[in-house]
Amino acid sequence: MPQQIRLKDHEKDARLVRNRVVVGAVATVLLVAVLIARLYYLQIIQYDYHSTLSENNRVHVQPIPPTRGLIFDRNGVIVADNRPSFSLSMTRERAGNWQEVLDTIIEVLALTEDDRALFEKRMKQGRRPFEPVPILFELSEDQIARVAVNQFRLPGVEVVAQLVRHYPQGAHFAHSVGYVGRINEKELKTLDPVNYSGTHHIGKTGVERFYEDQLHGQVGYEEVETNARGRVLRVLKRTDPKPGKDIVLSLDIKLQEAAEQALGGRRGAIVALEPRTGEVLAMVSQPSFDPNLFVTGISFKAYAELRDSIDRPLFNRVLRGLYPPGSTIKPAVAIAGLDSGVVNASSRVFDPGYYQLPNYDHKYRNWNRSGDGWVDLDVAIMRSNDTYFYELAHKMGIDRLSAYLNKFGIGQKVSLDMFEESPGLMPSREWKRATRRQAWFPGETLILGIGQGYMQATPLQLAQATALIANKGKWNRPHLAKTIEGQPPVDENPMADILLRDGNDWARVTHGMEQVMHGARGTARKAALGSPYRIAGKSGTAQVVAIKQGEKYDRNKLQERHRDHALFVAFAPAEAPKIVVAVMVENGESGSGVAAPVVRQVMDAWLLDENGQLKPEFGPATATVAQETAP
Q1: Which domains are seen in the chain, by residue range?
Q2: N or C end of the chain: which has fewer CB within 10 A?
Q3: Which residues does 152 contact at the CB level (< 8 Å), separation at least 6?
Q4: Given 327, 415, 531, 592, the catalytic residue
């Protein structure tokens, strides 16, 4: 049967086409409307946001770290400056896989795996986003050239010129000026994130740390236009940083060198003060170290050598060394006895070579086992008679003795601007009860009277106690900064002056100290031979190990590091003091024989001219006789 042929319905096809055209047109209109709405949203409503985002991709604000203030000695000799150096830095956000970039750096510069470990450690330290991290300092010309040739392999890496701290005097001022080092994560949390933007170093010790706020300055900024790779194309705006303040120290480089030479390579400490002002003229802790090693990062091996050295070169003996003051404290004890009325200048004690408490068998020995016979205050200081001061301490009692010595700075920080200073220890009944849970015993008071027992002091505290005697009780806190941007430092917490009932007691004690140096039986008279000025001084020894009752000190039975420390304190000229010196020689044994000559050399370096005569500013020379008759 033949198939039926379907006739085409033109009207139906036309309706279908019209419907499709309408649907397509509506869809097109809707899509165009959505596009226009989106464009309106992006271009009009979010204009500010996207314009800022676009601008930030092109314009960056970069911090400009301030130039750190310079440090000079009192004569204008520079002791801490800034020198230009090229460093290699990396911005982690721009480096991509920064660990692979580190591998490339090691390859390009032919460095070691230890260097890579150090670089990785620096990259992992806390930092701010998009902040370049210095990973290698003091690049050589060859290293700079290698980085430039391989720049395409080192995204986010650039060579940066910057100023790096430098200490031209090396180890001379390591323990006073201190040094700067890289900011660690702990410090980063406490620093002002704005002012320290772009700054990678901060004062770690000494003057550098105490005066960090003044030395650092104020950060600056510049707006720069960059390309897609982060390379700076041009500077749009700049706000200059404010450099740190310059500091002039009271230290004198020539006196510092003379003091080091006088110490002769022995372990010990020397501090010299100007008593009228409290200025520190010299501050030596030996052995010392080169602070430049710490500025850009010291190697593990070099630091281990310093840290593990038996001579402890990193230890500041002037500020942190705690030693029994020995007989150097006797002048302060004498002042306490006179002012409290326990003794007077003519009070006498018979010395058979030892002292015994009533109803006790124990004998507290005088250093002179044969005894000095009848001893008054003047002779007791001149001969450093222990028996006299045992009796004096016993009469005073621990409460009054502790209170008076506190006035001299024993047991507390005395400096104005020395961050690392230890307060030392001035024991008392309350201290022993709190720390040892024991009562105070009478014998403990006796040995405190000669500077032994629990009492501990730093060489700086001994110098300050001596300066108070030279100043007749006037307190001037020791300080290292002479001026800061031309202005002297201000003591916002001054100590109370020591006011005595009889001001002549200062002269009485000073006379006894003069006899130590110039008296016929003075313990340090040899150190004053030929001096054109009069010296008031006091020797002392600090026990390192205890000696049993009845035994004598025998140096041959002790290891060198177990022998007594040698101490000496003095001021000169005695009638108008211009310098106070405290010396501690570790295991030197004899204060008079070892430490006193060191004091004399330091004083000569400060007071005498090239011809060995007293400088005009310190008064006319006075002929002195080394051997006088003690009163």
Answers
A1: 64-249 (3.90.1310.10), 253-301+312-489+496-618 (3.40.710.10)
A2: N
A3: none
A4: 327
